[in-house]
Amino acid sequence: QVQLVESGGGLVQPGGSLRLSCVVSGFTLDRYAIGWFRQAPGMEREGVACISGTDESTHYKDSTLGRFTLSRDVAKNTVYLEMGSLKTEDTAVYYCAAGPYPDYCVSAMEYWGTGTLVTVSA
What is the spatial distance between Cα 103 and Cα 122, in angstroms, rounded to a whole number? Predict the structure, then answer.
C-alpha cells in the first residue's frame, strides 16, 4: 500500500527556515518522481518543486528558486524540502505527491500525502 507522510511544518518568522520531510512507503524512490505542492487559503494548489526518481534532477517553481532545495535519502525512503528565506506568501498547506511517472511531476499526481501546514508570520 502506497503512503506518503509529510512532517516538519510549523510557524516561522519571515526570513526563517524550515525543513519538510516526506516519508514514503509501498514503493522505492527510484520508481516515481516526487513533487511538493502547496495550497494557500482561497487559492488553487500549485506545484513547488519536483525531483526525478531516476536521475534526481530537480525543478522548482520560479518564486522558490534559490530559496528551496530538494533532496532525498534513499535508505530512509524520504524526500526533503529545505525552505529558506521564507516569505509570508509561502504560507500554505504543503503536500508531497508521487507518480505516475518516474521522471517528472504533473498536477494530477497519483498518490498524495495529507499535508503539513507552514505558516510564515511575524
Answer: 38
Q: How far is CA 92 from the centre of its chain?
A: 12
Q: Specify whether the CB–CB gap between 96 and 51 falls below 8 A.
A: no
The average pLDDT across 104-119 equals: 96
**Residue type for position 8:** G
Q: 7-26 pLDDT, tens per residue?
A: 999 999 999 999 999 999 99
Residue 62, judged by CB atoms within 10 A of its CB (0-12, 13-18, 19+), counts as exposed
Which amino acid is located at 42 in the chain? G
What CA–CA distance (Å, rounded) separates 91 from 38? 9
- Residue 30 DSSP one-character state: T
Kindly give, in sequence order, each residue whose CB lies less than 8 Å from that of residue 44, ignoring residues fewer than 6 positions away: none
Calculate Rg over the CA atoms of the chain. 13
Return the DSSP state at 31: T
